[in-house]
Amino acid sequence: MFVVDTPLQGGNDMPQCFDFKADGTVHREHLTAEHQQTPINIIKNNDRGGYTVPTNRLYPYQWNWDSGFTALGIWHFSKWRAWLEITSLLGAQWEDGMVPHIIFRRNDPDYFPGPDVWKTNTQPPTSGHSQPPVLASIVLQMVRMGSNYDKKKAKQIFSRLMSYHRWFATNRDPLGTGIIGIIHPWESGRDNCPDWDIGLKSVDVPDDLMHYQRRDTSHVDVNQRPTQEQYDKFIAIVEFGQKAGWNHKLIHNDGPFLMADPGVQFIFLRANKDLFELAQLLDFTDELKEIQDWIELLTKGCEWLWNDSIGSYCARDIKSGTFSNATTNASMLSFFAGAGSKVQKESMAHHCNRILSACSYGMPSWDPQHEEFESKRYWRGPVWLVMNHMIAIGLQDSGESGLAERIRNDTYRLVENNGMAEYFDPLDGTGLGGMNFSWTAAIYLNQCNDEVANTLDTTQ
After folding, report:
1. Could you tell me which residues come within 8 angstroms of residue 321 by beta carbon, excluding any fewer than 6 positions away?
2. Contact 92, 39 (CB under 8 A)
3. C-alpha to C-alpha distance for 376 and 183, rounded to whole angstroms
4. Residues 6+ apart with CB under 8 A from 221
5. 353: which residues sit within 8 A by CB, 6+ positions away?
6. C-beta of residue 439 within 8 angstroms of C-beta of residue 64
7. pLDDT of residue 110
8. Residues ≥6 apart with Cβ < 8 Å to 97
9. Residue 54, Cβ neighbours under 10 Å: how many?
10. By CB distance 3.0 to 4.6 Å, which of 17, 118, 264, 344 could disulfide with 340?
11. Are 369 and 358 in contact (CB under 8 A)?
12. 109-112, long-range: CB within 8 Å, 24+ apart, which pairs?
C-alpha cells in the first residue's frame, strides 16, 4: 500500500513554466523539473493509499478512466506507484471482465450515488457499468516511454486488459455490428452532454423513484452541473440496472437508454490498436487474431456514426437511429482512432479549425456555434484536458500538426492561467468544477515531460 511520505499542499498558483510567442507557440527553453512540482503535489494530496481520487470531497472514490490518466502522470515521478494505480483499478475488475466506473473503497456519505444505491454485490463495492476504455492506450504509452521494468508490469496485466476488451466487445455490441452502445450517459464519461438528451427523452422517471439528495451541487455551483431533470433520469436508469441484477446483455437489449457514442467508439478502436501493438511487444501472439477482428469490426461500425447532414461524426440513438446534430470533442477523437476516409478526415479538420476559431481555448466539449452550447455547464461546452490529450495525439498522428500544437498550447495556457481545475470555460478560460484535480495535473505533467523530451531530442 502506498502512503504519501509527507502531505504536500498543492494549490492553483502555478509557476509560469512557459512563455508564449505572439503566434501562441511555446518558448520551450524554460521547461525545467522544478516547474512540475505543483502537479506532483496535487496528485500526492489526492492519494488514498494505493489509488488516487479525482479531487477531495466532490469525487472521494476511485474512478476508472481518471485512474488511467492519473497513472500516466504519476509515471513521470514514480513508476512503481503508476503501475500500482492501474493494478488497484484492475483489482476491482468483475469476473466477467468489466472494469467498473467507480470503486467504493471506503464509505463516504458526502457522495451520491454511493454503493447502497448501485447494489452490485461486488467486493470491493463498485458501480454497475464501465467508462471509456483508455487503459490499453495508457499502458502502451508507459511501455513506449519506459524500460524492461514497464514491459514486465504490462505483461502481468495483459490478460486482464484482454478480458476487459472482450467484455466491451460482447456486452456493448452483443450482435457483432461493430457499433458500441452505452447503457447510461455516465458510461460515456461525458455525463450530461446534449448528445444524450436524445436518448434521455424516452427514459421515464417512475413515480416511486428513490428519494435522494444530490451532493455534487453542495461542492460546485449548480450552474456548472447537470440539471435536476437530467439527474432524475440518470438515477432511473441506475434503478433499472439494479432490478436487472446488472445483467448487461439484458440491460443492452431492454434498458431505457442505448446510444452509440463517438467517444467510446473511437477510444475503444484506438485502445484495440494499442492492445494489438502491446501483444506484439509482449509476445502474446495467440491473441493477435482476436484483437484484429475487433479492430476491423469497429472500423466498419464507425461509418454508422457519420452524419452526412453536417459532415461530422456524431452520437446516435441505437433504438431510433436519430442523430445528434453537433460536432463535439468526442467527434474529434476520430483522429485518435484513425477513422474515416480522406474526405471525412478533411471535413473533421475543417470542423476543428472552425470550432477553434470560435473560442479562446480548445477543444470545447460542444460546438460553440450551436444553440445548445453552455460555456460553463459540465460537458455542454467546457474544455477537458484529458480529451485535449487524446485529440492532440490523434491530430499529430494524422498529420494535422498545426491543430495539435494549438490544442497543446491551450492546455498549457488554461492550467497556467487558471489552475488545475476539473474543466475550463472555452471562452474566458475560467477554471470550473472541482479544483486541484488529479487527471488535469497528470495531463499537464505528462505534456511537460513530452516537451522536455522533444527539446532534448532537438538539441542533441
Report:
1. none
2. no
3. 26
4. none
5. 403
6. no
7. 81
8. 163, 164, 166, 167
9. 23
10. 344
11. yes
12. 110/57, 110/60, 110/215, 111/59, 111/60, 111/61, 111/215, 112/212, 112/213, 112/214, 112/215, 112/216
Q: Residue 4 has what pLDDT?
A: 32
Say which DSSP state 209 is in: P
Q: What is the DSSP track for 241-306?
A: HHHTTT-HHHHHHHSS--EE-HHHHHHHHHHHHHHHHHHHHTT-GGGHHHHHHHHHHHHHHGGGGE
- In the predicted model, residues of the chain with pLDDT beneath 50 are 1-22, 24-30, 455-460
- Looking up cell 422517471 gives 205
Q: Which residues are catalytic?
A: 191, 422
pLDDT digits (tens, 9 = 90+) for 55-98: 998 889 999 999 999 999 999 999 999 999 999 999 999 999 99
42 exposure class (CB count in 10 Å sphere: 0-12, 13-18, 19+): buried
Q: What is the pLDDT of residue 222?
A: 78
The C-alpha cell 459532415 sits at 311
Cell of 61: 472514490
| Cell numbers found for residue 351 | 470542423
DSSP states along 109-146: TTSSS-HHHH----SS-B-SS-----HHHHHHHHHHHS
The CA distances from residue 358 to 119, 194, 354, 362, in Å, are 44, 19, 6, 9
One-letter amino acid for residue 239 of the chain: E
Give the list of residues 6+ apart from residue 343 with CB closer than 8 angstroms, or none: none
Q: Are residues 53 and 423 in contact, defined by beta-carbon separation less than 8 angstroms?
A: no
Query: In 3-state terms, what secondary structure has residue 324?
Result: coil
Summarised one tens digit per residue, pLDDT across range 281-316 is 999 999 999 999 999 999 999 999 999 999 999 999
Phi, then psi, of 55 in degrees rounded to 5: -165, 160
The CA-based angle 280-282-284, given to 5 degrees, is 65
pLDDT of residue 158: 98
| Helices 401-418 and 385-397: angle between axes, nearest 10 degrees | 160
- Cell numbers 512557459 correspond to 18
Reduce the DSSP state of residue 31 to 3 states and report it. Answer: coil
User: What pLDDT does 453 receive?
Assistant: 53
